[in-house]
Amino acid sequence: MKRFLCLLLIGLILCSGSGCKRSEAYDPEKAYHTARSFSELGDTGADAGLELARAKEMLFRIEHGELTGRHAQETLDARTEAYQKLRTDAAIAYVRYCRDVTNEANKRAYDTLSLQISELSCILVDAALLLTKDPALKDRYDPETIEALKAEDALSDLSVLPLIERERALVGAYEALSDRLFLERGGRTWTGDEILSDPTLSPEAFTDLYEAYLDLFNREAGAICLDLIRVRREIGETLGYGSYAEYRYACLDRDYSPDDAALLSEHVRETLVPVFIKLQRDFYGAAGALYGAVFEQEPTMKRMEDAVTAVLPMLSEPWEYMISHGMYDLGNDFKRMPGSFTTYFATYGAPFLFSAWTGDFETIPTVIHEFGHYASFYLNGGDTDAAGSLDLAEIDAQGLELLTVLRYDTIYGELSEAAETAELFYALYALIDGCVEDAFQQFAYAQPEPTLEALNAEYGRLCAQFGLDTLGTEARSWTRIPHTFQSPFYYISYAASMTAALELYLMGKRDPEAARDAYRTVLLRRNGLPFRKMTEYAGLGDPFDPDRLAKTAHELLRIRQDGGTDDLNGTKDR
Ligand SMILES: [Zn+2]
Predict the structure, then answer these.
(1) pTM score, two decimals?
(2) Of 98, 125, 157, which residue sits at a domain end?
(3) What is the C-alpha separation between 251 and 248, in angstroms, rounded?
């Protein structure tokens, strides 16, 4: 029942190394997008080893006063350009790895490159910080750029690279777990897939085997997580952060603290969990017809295109680009990394969408979600403001998901009401689960001596407290969420941004034009506002305001009680 949410790969975008500012000048009309298709893309030709050697030499010469002024800046700009190429290569290598996680060469290529990029990033930031003190470059570095560089410098350091290498190895071990975990039972070994797909198993035998498999997975993944917690806490401590949660919140460019998130979770529990429980009943009523349907990829994608471009016509260009250039992968074989993500090949001006087309209902909102990220990358060109804040990026995605609900008749025809019920249910699920996973991780990283038993118990307690246990979500299932391993403290962004996305949905019910404008304002952001200020600016309010949450809950209940979809055109507001 657990729905896996996407992982947006943003990572550190080193813009400040070249001294660039917010790109008011960025013009989507003139933006470069490679004419090549994904299958024709090779490496950019940048050599990571060579670039590292060059960057080290440059830093040494700047430190010793041998390289100064304009010449130093030009050298740094050239190294930064090469860094962007390597990031592009790493993003491509990651896609290759995710298509087949059993391929050791792909995995090694990605691991090696990502570590080299971390090192290169540290060196370039150090060099840029030294140049900020060069009087000849005073025009280049204004106070805002210097602050941004210092903030970036605080997030990493060459001294933590061995820890980052260890962290990546543990994440890789988790990623390999799904198809390398063998349960020994009844004189043979079983993988999870074999248990799920064996038609000869009786219901009792299946339950017995699958329960044992879940136990084994929880033990193995749990042990990896305990190691990760130790390594990650050391990273946070070495970099001088009060807690690992604070460090991660800084990495994810948040304008709220772990304590603010805990408060948000408390308000969500009080106001929205009761709505979720009510919707759950509606969802079970709607699920039969919806989950019995099979959605063929090609015609459904065409209908999805019609629906998202009806939400916002400017989305037709990124959609057409994605399809005509093969900048997506919707395959569905067992060797793939589970889950969905969107990434960006900066050097080629091309975003890439990775998900799986299973043909069931959930595929559709998942792909629309990813396409919200895709459109943002395409239209903003990987601009730091647009890509930097995870919370804003998740409004791009979840906002589009919920605004498209208002066009569900285009996609689902007579199933559109059932699909709307299901989507609203999943929206609230994402919001609540965002709170649960963050509270769980805050607990896990704060334990002096965490144990698997304590983690399982706390997760079970939180699920019960937030109404997720009614879905059959239980204590062991936290180990199935890849974000907890790959990108800790990511999940609260689903909650924070979903409150704004629900505002968009409710606004769209009343006034579709106003909702479209608000969404476009967030999507094309260029003003550098942080998340909470940006949502206020777009007319969506502060996602952390408890009164606003209560109002959202109230309005959702009212719509559901009114029967929901009859005021779609915004002509009635009962
Ligand atoms: Zn997302």
Answers:
(1) 0.89
(2) 157
(3) 5
Q: How far is the CA of 291 from the centre of ligand 1 (A)?
A: 23
Distance 490 CA to ligand 1 centre (A): 10
Query: How far is the centre of ligand 1, averaged over its atoms, from the C-alpha of 76 (Å)?
Result: 33
Tens of pLDDT along 49-91?
999 999 999 999 999 999 999 999 999 999 999 999 999 999 9
Compute CA distances 529 → 10, 130, 501, 535, 557, whole Å.
Answer: 18, 27, 18, 9, 32
Q: Per residue in 114-135, pLDDT tens?
A: 999 999 999 999 999 999 999 9
Please say whether the beta carbons of 342 and 373 come within 8 A.
Answer: yes
Q: Which two tokens stand for residue 244?
A: 């690992």
149 close to 16: Cβ distance less than 8 angstroms? yes
Collapsing DSSP to helix, strand or coil, 328 comes out as strand
Nearest to 478 by CA among 470, 273, 355, 468: 468
Give the distance (Å) from ligand 1 centre to CA of residue 493.
9
Question: Residue 370 Cα, ligand 1 centroid: separation in angstroms?
Answer: 6
Instruction: Round to whole Å and give the CA distance between 522 and 244.
Output: 29
Angle separating helix axes 104-131 and 161-180, nearest 10 degrees: 160
Q: How far is the centre of ligand 1, averaged over its atoms, from the C-alpha of 341 (Å)? A: 7
328, β-bridge pairs: 353
Q: Which residues on adjacent β-strands are paired with residue 342?
A: 8, 353
Do residue 270 and residue 410 come from a single domain? Answer: yes
Do residues 290 and 238 share a domain? no
The whole-angstrom distance between residue 383's C-alpha and the CA centroid of its chain comes to: 17
CA distance 483 to 479: 10
> Model confidence over 363-407: pLDDT tens digits?
999 999 999 999 999 998 876 555 568 899 999 999 999 999 999
Could you tell me if residue 401 is inside a domain?
Answer: yes
Assess whether 93 and 212 both reside in one domain. Answer: no
Structural domain span for residue 225: 180-242
